[in-house]
């Protein structure tokens, strides 16, 4: 993730402890630290497109975003919600 003051590699790790359908599908990790969560969603466009609703916890500036994977699933576009 590259932002104005953040240049860090983050990763999404599958949440193997999902206790309900509303639980996050992924944990957002920075190294070994859990910094947020991501939920699977489908867009309302035609055709529907899979994306993840991402929440990154930060005491100074919590981030909400949508993460849209490319067709190959190797990279993704992060769209911040203001």
Automatic annotation (TrEMBL):
Top-level taxonomic group: Bacteria
InterPro entries associated with the record: DUF736
Pfam family for this entry, one: DUF736
Protein name as annotated: DUF736 domain-containing protein
Lineage start: Bacteria, Pseudomonadati, Pseudomonadota, Alphaproteobacteria, Sphingomonadales
